[in-house]
TrEMBL record:
Domain ABC transporter: 23-251
Family per record: Belongs to the ABC transporter superfamily.
UniProt-recorded name of the protein: ABC transporter ATP-binding protein
PANTHER family to which the protein is assigned, alphabetical: TEICHOIC ACIDS EXPORT ATP-BINDING PROTEIN TAGH
Top-rank taxon, per record: Bacteria
UniProt source species: Lentzea indica
CDD domains: ABC_KpsT_Wzt (cd03220)
Upper taxonomic lineage: Bacteria, Bacillati, Actinomycetota, Actinomycetes, Pseudonocardiales
Keywords on record: ATP-binding, Nucleotide-binding, Transport
Length: 272
């Protein structure tokens, strides 16, 4: 059984090259974690006293303004960052999908990149060999898959990366928002694969600014604010508090059709 537990965890970033005069200006800003400068080295407190318990089957949306701590929290949940204070325990294999391009090598072919990226996300070579034809077909890149990745356009790279990411079998899937940033036509095609990916993941945490994505893939949510968990509960309840209106009242007919009538998020408070 997979799970992630975090107890009173904080993550600080000491900034060794910050100038104190410009820091004052920053402290007046509205975004980002708290900047402390009591010591000799200024510190950005990106996460402050986080306590969370996530388990198998959880589908958690992560929302909050720029600099609220979403990406840092995802990295803490992935075990990439250790808490500066407090503790964390991760049980299960994590597939961190933070940047679609990470783990890609521009000098090797599309086919080779499929393998490398799959290994990076925790798959074995054998597992990837079984999937490579399916991924190749999904990308529609044809003979380009024999060419070095540096010859690809941005959109072509995204197709390749999405093909691989949606083919894995993650125990813990952590998605940062970049995944939504592809052109609408291809996203429509990738959506079904993403949905299947989420279905076979043990635990999902998905940082995203799009209501539609969150409503389709998540049933609970965490609202981050200045490094704190401001609210953790049912998706509808959290999104309504965060946005100041109920996004479930404005669901597009297309999304409604995709969700079907049985979706837990459409009844009550979003699956809680
Ligand atoms: N490597 C780092 N070094 C120093 N400060 C950092 C680092 N990473 C994040 N921060 C700071 O931590 C705070 C939280 O940043 P984080 O990237 O987690 O926010 P976010 O909610 O993901 O923001 P966004 O929606 O803009 O991506 C910010 O104040 C940011 O400046």
């Amino acid at each position: 059984m997979v799970s992630i537990d975090v107890w009173n965890a904080s993550v600080d970033f000491p900034i060794f090259d910050a100038k104190s005069r410009s820091l004052k200006k920053l402290a007046l800003g509205k975004v980002g974690g708290k900047i402390g400068s009591e010591g000799r080295v200024p510190i950005i407190e990106a996460l402050h006293d986080i306590t969370l318990s996530l388990k198998d089957g959880d589908r958690v949306g992560l929302v909050g303004h720029n600099g609220a701590g979403k990406s840092t929290l995802l990295r803490l949940l992935a075990g990439i960052y250790e808490p500066t204070r407090g503790n964390s325990r991760i049980i299960g294999k994590v597939a961190p999908v933070f940047d679609l391009g990470v783990g890609m090598d521009p000098e090797i072919s599309g086919y080779e990149n499929i393998m490398i990226r799959g290994l990076f996300l925790g798959m074995t070579r054998k597992e990837m060999e079984k999937r490579v034809d399916d991924i190749a077909e999904f990308t529609e890149l044809g003979d380009y898959l024999q060419m070095p990745l540096r010859t690809y356009s941005t959109g072509m790279r995204v197709r390749l990366a999405l093909g691989v990411v949606t083919s894995i079998n993650p125990e813990i899937l952590l998605l940062d928002e970049g995944i939504g940033a592809v052109d609408a036509a291809f996203m429509a095609k990738a959506r079904d694969r993403l949905k299947d990916l989420v279905k076979r993941s043990g635990l999902l945490v998905f940082a995203n600014h799009s209501d539609e994505f969150l409503i389709e893939f998540c049933d609970t949510a965490i609202w981050m604010d200045e490094g704190h968990v401001k609210m953790h509960g049912g998706l509808r309840e959290v999104l309504t508090a965060y946005k100041g209106h109920d996004p479930f009242e404005r669901i597009s007919p297309e999304l409604l059709a995709r969700l079907g009538h049985s979706s837990p998020v459409l009844s009550g408070n979003g699956g809680e």
